[in-house]
Amino acid sequence: MNPRVMTVYGTRPEAIKVAPVVRALEASPKVESITLVTGQHREMLDQVNQFFSITPDHDLNVFETGQTLNALVSKVFSRLDQHFADSAPDAVLVQGDTSTALAAAQAAFHQQIPVVHLEAGLRSGNLHSPFPEEANRRLISQISSLHLAATPTARSNLLREGIADVDIAVTGNTVIDALLEAVQKPAEIEDPRIAQAVAEERPILLVTTHRRENWGSAMEGVGRALRVLAEQNPEWLVVLPTHRNPVVRQAILPQIGELPNVIAGEPLPYDQFTHLLAASRIVLTDSGGIQEEAPSLGKPVLVMRDNTERPEAVVAGTVQLIGTDEHVIIREVSRLINDRLWYDSFANTTNPYGDGHAAPRACAAIEQLLGVGTRIKDFGSGYPDVSTWTVEQAAQADALDRARARVGAA
Ligand code: UDP
Fold it and tell me: In the 8-state DSSP scheme, what is residue 129?
């Protein structure tokens, strides 16, 4: 009988990033793939599974509005044992840094089932930011048997923490595999106002925010900044697919109020979101995944955080860290809107995060771990390792690149 790999995931971004690997595992004649969702997110997760035609084998359905992280983790913990006993997986695959990923990794470790960590080695260097993700990812690294790092930088982070090189494969990020597939498929944007703006090539500012460390006053400031930007730029459409978390909605929506050129609606299904991303002029976000996706589409990204575990695109010049001060947000978005040369200095469609072939690399490394295959060549030898750079150094390199681009373009 083939060895069994159980993939455990629970949120929208995990679903997007595991989908290409789950499908590669399903297609492999060497392993048996089992999927289990925790349901940490509900509708947003189900939409992604549908898009990728994945029907989970098991569903813990732990979602409850407003539950604490501890309540969530304890449910996942207590329910996984039975599933591990029933399915007897030979490896458990988790993705990223959510509470689902940490709980599943730890539950598997307790049962002495090897843990495979997809998107291993991201580090912001600050245990409390992003919260709780930085802690989750560090903890998962300590108990994983195979580390699927997206980039050479992530690999170096792991090596510095004492992880053995032989246990690391550099795959590229599977989010790019998913994105390239999604933007190639036709998608109909349901909201007629967004669809019209896309059809007319109206300039669109696409905004997403959900990070826990931005909850409260920072997010209120984001709302006020969006109001000012929309009022100052009536020809632009501001689209804010608003995260389902009520804490996010209560902080941001009252600050924006009703404006004719702001659409603050529901999160968009993944296929519609990726098409909107491709049609947007500027992206303002605190999302990790969107920082990785946008460079493939040549979109400038302003990141509303003070640090990032994804320095590669800052160095490549397509991402700028701007923090959450509302005045800085207004200043930096306005600069991109009004200064064409500045805008062009961001446009760069090489993506340091992936080439769209991460899933086969991940699948091959898992097969090797289970003794039924061999790895294929790592991703990204051409990209610099920026793991030892501070955020300030990255920002300096970014400024230099921009200055060169501006001189070149002028
Ligand atoms: N996304 C989506 N619909 C939306 C907003 C985002 O499908 O309305 C996708 C996006 O393409 C990206 C992922 O969700 O792949 C990012 O999720 P999120 O920002 O919630 O999490 P993070 O990446 O910060 O962990």
Answer: B
